[in-house]
Amino acid sequence: MSDNKIIRKNPLFEFYVEDKHLVITNEDYIKDNCVINLNSISHLELIRGSSFFNKIIEFIIGFWQELESDILRIHLKNGHKDILLTNCNI
Prior knowledge:
The chain is mainly beta. 11% of the residues lie in helices and 49% in strands. The protein is built from one helix and seven strands; from the N terminus they run βββββαββ. The strands form two sheets. Strands 1-2-3-4 form a four-stranded antiparallel sheet, with no helix packed on it.
């Protein structure tokens, strides 16, 4: 396992390509673990954490989240898969 595939070590989060599939391993959020055929991916999108203004609105209406997280959205031919990137070295 090469360190260039690891974006968080504790808990482990890594992704790599193997046999024309994208393999994602996330020990923090087991539901993120998956193997995706590269041919089914249309594009990737990195959704950054909310802005300060959005955090104020979320706090006022009661949707405050304590963790700052980004999302890696994998757009597939038949939908999308969101991968939560909490405390990752983006």
